[in-house]
Write a structure and sequence with these properties.
Blueprint lengths: L1 H40 L3 H7 L3 H7 L1 E4 L10 H9 L3 E3 L17 H14 L5 E4 L1 E3 L2 E2 L13 H5 L3 H18 L3 E2 L26 H17 L3 E7 L14 E2 L6 H13 L5 E4 L2 E2 L13 H11 L5 E3 L6 H4 L4 H11 L4 E3 L10 H14 L5 H17 L4
Parallel strand pairs: 1-2, 1-12, 2-3, 3-6, 6-7, 7-9, 8-10, 9-11
Antiparallel strand pairs: 4-5
Helix pairs in contact: 3-14, 7-8, 8-9, 12-13
């Protein structure tokens, strides 16, 4: 009996001695395994470098291209250009200006939806797909092609902001259903000169009252945002008082510009955080900058837009192939000036007097050359890339 008790006591003594040791060993082994697992999941320096954008990638992100074609495949020129140069966006048109003919990209709703789907399929899912859809006369999605009718800005401005929201919501829904994610609208030019050939005569302004312009533009933007469509307010610093068309040449607004009235919609929309993108105008005001149009002017874009108006978002140039630019500045010179002035996105619509099949390579290499020669800093490119990517991510374009 005593022997039995002794053996039981000895058994528990052995457990007491060896169990903690085994437990500690097991725990240490588990912790060691956890540490090793954590290390193996961390990215190596090489992997981190691969995920960081290259200079080439950042440059491509800054370019928006226009092209010809109503359908594409994996071997189409625009697909090869986007993939080779990491082009960040494209813009679609219904009319081809160089050939003075229809169609360019847009035939009808089903074709347009397929074209956009194929662009994303064959290139990149985060591609900006842009269009000018203001309503009225300036709308690439015309009723004769099977798209819905949208009032002009002038017609919307004659009603209430709530009516503008309703009208623009129809447009936003259509854009979303087709696959567009960027609308180069609304125009927030104040209708100072009602005979303006490019604004007033085309009913592109909401009103001659800057408050009404601001209120209706805000409703238009709200409607686009309802369908996750990025908007671009234009044409900074204001095209409403001009007497000429900047598609044809430089427009001087020195004697007609009303700074207080024309900057008011920008100031208020920026304060309301509704300025996704600001599009520049190719207009001169020699009282402000005697040498450069707004698109190429750091005084307009840095001192006024970013400084005075506190705008931190993306700045996009109007088409860099418009007459106001190409007839007064060299191609590379204009690009360097625009980026150094503060433009983050550059539009090359390829829809002016002539069509350039090599515009993707030409624009990309012009920027790259300027960076390598020190005429544009890499910091400027990185800043633009960051702004663009943040905008895309905010709207779920990934």
């Amino acid at each position: 009996m005593k022997l039995k008790k002794y053996l039981i006591f000895l058994f528990f003594l052995v457990l007491a001695v060896f169990l903690p040791t085994n437990f500690i060993f097991s725990s240490c082994k588990e912790k060691t395994n956890n540490i090793n697992t954590g290390t193996s999941n961390n990215k190596t320096s090489a992997e981190m470098e691969q995920t960081s954008p290259t200079l080439d990638q950042m440059i491509g992100e800054m370019i928006i291209l226009g092209f010809r074609g109503t359908e594409i495949d994996n071997y189409s020129g625009i697909v090869e250009d986007i993939n080779e140069y990491n082009i960040g966006g494209i813009i679609l048109f219904d009319y081809d200006v160089p050939s003075k003919s229809f169609p360019r990209n847009i035939l009808d709703p089903s074709q347009t939806k397929k074209l956009i789907g194929d662009l994303k399929k064959f290139t990149r899912s985060d591609l900006l797909i842009a269009v000018d859809a203001e309503g009225g006369y300036v709308n690439r999605l015309k009723v004769e092609y099977g798209f819905i009718t949208i009032k002009s800005a002038q017609e919307m401005g004659e009603g209430y902001p709530e009516d503008t929201f309703f009208e623009a919501s129809k447009l936003g829904q259509e854009l979303d259903s087709l696959g567009f994610n960027l609308n180069f609208a609304p125009v927030i030019d104040v209708n100072i000169n009602k005979d303006n050939p490019v604004i007033g005569n085309l009913e592109r302004s909401f009103s001659d009252d800057p408050v009404k312009v601001y209120e209706n533009a805000g409703s238009f933007i709200d409607a686009m945002h309802k369908y996750d469509i990025i908007t671009a307010i234009k044409h900074f610093p204001g095209h409403g008082s001009s007497t000429k068309d900047s598609h044809l040449g430089l427009v001087d607004i020195t004697d007609t510009y009303n700074e207080e009235a024309e900057l008011f919609p920008y100031r208020k929309l920026i304060e309301d955080s509704k300025a996704d993108i600001v599009m520049t105008a190719h207009i001169m005001n020699t009282d402000i900058d005697p040498d450069n149009p707004a698109t190429l002017s750091s005084i307009f874009l840095q001192d006024i837009l970013r400084g005075e108006l506190n705008y931190e978002g993306v700045i996009v140039s109007d088409d860099m192939q418009m007459g106001a630019i190409v007839t007064n500045f060299g191609f590379e010179e204009a690009i360097i000036k625009a980026i150094n002035a503060g433009c983050n996105l550059l539009i090359f619509s390829n829809n002016g007097p002539s069509y350039d099949k090599g515009i993707a390579q030409k624009s990309f290499e012009a920027i790259l050359k300027a960076v390598r020669s020190g005429k544009i800093t890499e910091e400027e490119i990185n800043s633009s890339y960051t702004r663009i990517k943040e905008l895309k991510e905010r709207f779920g374009i990934i």
